[in-house]
Recover the amino acids of this structure.
């Protein structure tokens, strides 16, 4: 599989991706490229608002799952007035939904959440779960291609 193309397709699909993070918690993530690096906008109903984070590592598991790891300390907690910085990534209706306290529910209702089978977004601290179950060479190649 052409994994770089798969990542580009997820970006170009222009949809949020919903992941179940366990214990009935759900997050939605929007993947985008900025200055030749991969970034995410993340929302959960547990957070007070959306956050932006750098993708730090890409792993392709032995089951052909694509997992992006981000720094859980987050690069920035987004504010409503930050919209202009992200207006090419999300439209105003989606942006406003991120600050309602029910972001994931609202994004799903707006039909802007896609399903990407085998694509997951995880905090970097979860990487240890995958240490023995990934293609190290392929993962390193993708890290280089996306300047991680």
């Amino acid at each position: 599989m052409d994994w770089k193309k798969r990542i580009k397709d997820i970006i170009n699909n222009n949809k949020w991706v919903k992941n179940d993070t366990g214990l009935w918690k759900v997050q939605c993530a929007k993947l985008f490229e900025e200055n030749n690096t991969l970034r995410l906008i993340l929302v959960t109903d547990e957070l007070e608002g959306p956050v932006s984070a750098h993708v730090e590592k890409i792993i392709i598991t032995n089951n052909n799952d694509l997992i992006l790891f981000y720094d859980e300390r987050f690069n920035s907690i987004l504010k409503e007035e930050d919209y202009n910085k992200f207006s090419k990534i999300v439209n105003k209706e989606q942006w406003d939904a991120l600050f309602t306290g029910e972001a994931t529910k609202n994004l799903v209702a707006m039909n802007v959440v896609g399903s990407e089978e085998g694509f997951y977004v995880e905090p970097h601290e979860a990487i240890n779960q995958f240490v023995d179950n990934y293609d190290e060479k392929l993962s390193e190649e993708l890290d280089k291609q996306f300047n991680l």
